[in-house]
């Protein structure tokens, strides 16, 4: 079955462009559009999309609050949210990730990256682009812990290897890259990542990366 996509952006021209790109793919179907967060909530309830392509800055209700309501405890449906950002202008992307977004993508990303991101998010994975993630978290370093705060008790539930894996996830490395770095198999890495998420009560790799920075395990700007 095709992946059902809802386009949410206050610029009709951008929505048209996204629609043209996505409808050229046999496994993707654009089921609706919305020009702001309130319309997005209505469309999610009515159309039950698999993935919501969500802009951040919109009138009436922004993408952060819409994401929070779509993915929160009272969510109505299985929709995952993929946030669209211009990066240099959007200071709310970290908040969108905390609110429950499964990842983010630059608005000027190539068409094939957009298509792949939607497929990844629909499959239940996080779209965590390494370079963007690192730049984003470093950009907002002033809003994150300095690394001098007490380590959260939950972090002590992880093994040393799981802590290593969490640090590499926070740097934006893929499973393959982590496997190469630690000289283990990708299957082993997936197992470790799964244990980290379960022990820390996190939904996906995006939340894991944010947690690593917020807990002080990884310091913004550190290599």
From TrEMBL:
Domain Response regulatory: 4-122
GO biological processes: phosphorelay signal transduction system; regulation of DNA-templated transcription
CDD domains for the chain: LuxR_C_like, REC_NarL-like
Disulfide bond in keyword set: no
Keywords linked to the UniProt accession: DNA-binding, Phosphoprotein, Transcription, Transcription regulation
PROSITE patterns: HTH_LUXR_1, HTH_LUXR_2, RESPONSE_REGULATORY
Signal peptide positions (record): none
Keyword Transcription attributed: yes
Molecular function GO terms recorded: DNA binding
InterPro entries noted in UniProt: CheY-like_superfamily, NreC/VraR/RcsB-like_REC, Sig_transdc_resp-reg_C-effctor, Sig_transdc_resp-reg_receiver, Tscrpt_reg_LuxR_C, WalR-like
Domain of life: Bacteria
4-aspartylphosphate: residues bearing it: 55
Residue intervals of the HTH luxR-type domain: 151-216
SMART domains in alphabetical order: HTH_LUXR (SM00421), REC (SM00448)
Protein name as it appears in the record: DNA-binding response regulator
Annotated organism of origin: Streptomyces inhibens
Organism lineage: Bacteria, Bacillati, Actinomycetota, Actinomycetes, Kitasatosporales
